Amino acid sequence: MGDASSVRGAAEGGDAVLHLAAVVAERPPAVTFERVNVEGTRNVVAEAERAHVPRLVHVSSLGADRGASAYHRSKRMGEEIARSFSRAWLVGRGAGQPTPAAAALVRRALSACGEAPPRPRPRWRRWPRA
């Protein structure tokens, strides 16, 4: 995600972009909070803009608004980037691993961003390890 070309085309034809990806521990130089949580979010938002996707949901982290760690600062910056999206957006905060309840929350969030329930078009990609 830290490279804009890695997400190019990923939002094409989608009804919404759901951005959940982040790192909670750094492995420099390739995996850093700045590269993934900030630049990665910037690249995802730019791709959503380029593809004219009508909705963006960005899932951040509990404590992003007040945490003092480098991780929390990077998540706060990611939220600011997500809020710059020119169409409907939602920034939510969660904790821990995805669960069925979290998936239901995401579906409700996506629906709340638009007038009709979204038709997700998942695009799975195996990201290379750094």
What does the model show?
- It comes from Sorangium cellulosum (Polyangium cellulosum).
- With 130 residues, the protein is an alpha/beta fold.
- It has one domain: NAD(P)-binding Rossmann-like Domain (Rossmann fold, 3-Layer(aba) Sandwich).
- Helices cover 35% and strands 13% of the residues.
- It is built from three helices and three strands.
- Helix 1 packs parallel to helix 2.
Question: Any chance you could write out the topology, listing elements then pairs?
Answer:
Blueprint: E1 17-19, H1 33-50, E2 55-61, H2 70-83, E3 88-94, H3 100-113
Parallel strand pairs: 1-2, 2-3
Helix pairs in contact: 1-2
Give the number of DSSP strands. Answer: 3
Label the structural class: alpha/beta
**Overall geometry:** globular
Mean pLDDT, as a whole number? Answer: 83
**Through-space gap between termini:** 12 Å
Q: Provide the gyration radius in Å.
A: 14 Å
Task: Indicate the CATH architecture.
Answer: 3-Layer(aba) Sandwich
The topology string of helices and strands comes to EHEHEH
Multimeric state of these chains? single chain
Q: Provide the β-strand percentage band.
A: 5-15%
> What is the CATH topology assignment?
Rossmann fold
Largest sheet: 3 strands, parallel
Task: List segments where confidence is low: pLDDT < 50 over at least 5 consecutive residues.
Answer: 115-127
The CATH class label is Alpha Beta
Helix content: 25-40%
Task: Provide the number of structural domains.
Answer: 1
* Strand line-up of the largest beta sheet: 1-2-3
Count the DSSP helices.
3
Pfam family, one: 3Beta_HSD
Domain 3-beta hydroxysteroid dehydrogenase/isomerase: 3-64
GO molecular function, one term: oxidoreductase activity, acting on the CH-OH group of donors, NAD or NADP as acceptor
InterPro entries: 3Beta_OHSteriod_DH/Estase, NAD(P)-bd_dom_sf
